Amino acid sequence: MRLIMLGPPGAGKGTQAALVSAAHGVPAISTGDIFRANIKGETPLGLQVKEITASGGYVPDEITNAIVRDRLAEPDASSGFLLDGYPRTTGQVEALDQMLAESGHALDAVVELTVDTDEVVQRLLARAADQGRADDTEHVVRERMRIYAEETAPLAAVYRQRGLLHEVDGMGTVEDVTARIEAALSDRAGA
Ligand code: ADP
After folding, report:
1. Considering only Cβ atoms within 10 Å of each terminal Cβ, which end of the chain, N or C, has fewer?
2. Is 12 domain-assigned?
3. Which residues are 114's β-sheet partners?
4. Is the pLDDT of residue 12 over 80?
5. Considering Cα of 94, then 71, then 164, then 147, what sign does the dihedral take?
6. Which residue has a Cα nearest atom 4 of ligand 1?
7. Which pTM was predicted?
8. Could you tell me the CATH number of the domain that includes residue 118?
């Protein structure tokens, strides 16, 4: 199973990605987690992306695409993966298409979690209090939502045209949302 999880910051992508990937026996790959681990470890990549991520901007496509290319080449991703937070730009969609074409694989589905903006801001501010992420202040949260709407929301249209998009209501309990995602995945033609 090769899956993409789309959704605005705070939609619960990370939580659902972990549950859905475990259920399907594929790794959940989060570019945000990869960047955070590198920032924490003060690696050259971490130093390069620290300020960009702290301000809510997007890491340049060349950097992000190269990281995903390496990660997808790991053995655990050979029979499937769930991408969380990637692709986020049309350039990344093209890069992923290229990587998949090279390995002779295709995406099975794209799940877009839809949410209520006000509720999402509240969730993110609660997470900031919990986890102390540098990019969860209200100002940065709003900036990340604006960039999402501008850069990433159009990706849903691309995948819809390809017949891969499943919009799933991301509001409600974690269990409810997981059940909706699984229902959407099992409804796929040929699933
Ligand atoms: P969220 O989905 O809550 O916004 P993520 O953990 O997915 O957070 O990403 C955190 C930050 O990492 C983003 O705001 C961005 O700066 C950077 N980032 C993550 N994935 C990408 C990507 N695919 N392209 C560019 N930047 C990214």
Report:
1. C
2. yes
3. 169
4. yes
5. negative
6. 9
7. 0.89
8. 3.40.50.300
